Amino acid sequence: MRSSRSLIPIGSLSMQFLVDGEDTEGHMAMAEMIVQPQANVPPPHRHADVDETIRVLEGCLTYRVDGEVRVLQAGDHCFSPRGSVHHFSNPGDVPARALVVFSPANIGPAYFEDVAGVLGSGGPPDKEQLVAVMRRHGIELAN
């Protein structure tokens, strides 16, 4: 297992993978995510082949899965089964910190690095490029 993991800043979010598909033969990936207050977050989306579980460690997140909305406090968790439409936000005034598990590890550091590259290219985000990155990694925007 690799001992050093880089922090991936993505706008007002950051991801640091603790375990990725290289460590688990593709079975799962786990990252620590920090969401700044009022952050610009990914729009509602789904991944057809990946389950996602989140556990809030600090702060709180509003989390929606297929129309059910919950406010997750430290210690709470939420499961988004593959194919479900999900979305989160931090409407609070302090950063939220959470663990996120992807199973299998089809969503990992490469996805977040690609998104960060599009967002960091200067100017307003290119929505077509973002959608292309999402598709490449098995993620689609919800209609």
UniProtKB/TrEMBL annotation:
Domain Cupin type-2: 32-102
InterPro entries: Cupin_2, QDO-like, RmlC-like_jellyroll, RmlC_Cupin_sf
One Gene Ontology term of the molecular function aspect: dioxygenase activity
The keyword Oxidoreductase is annotated on this UniProt entry: yes
Pfam families: Cupin_2
Keyword Oxidoreductase annotated: yes
Source species, domain of life: Bacteria
Keywords for this protein: Dioxygenase, Oxidoreductase
PANTHER family, A to Z: PUTATIVE (AFU_ORTHOLOGUE AFUA_8G07350)-RELATED
Full protein name: Quercetin dioxygenase-like cupin family protein
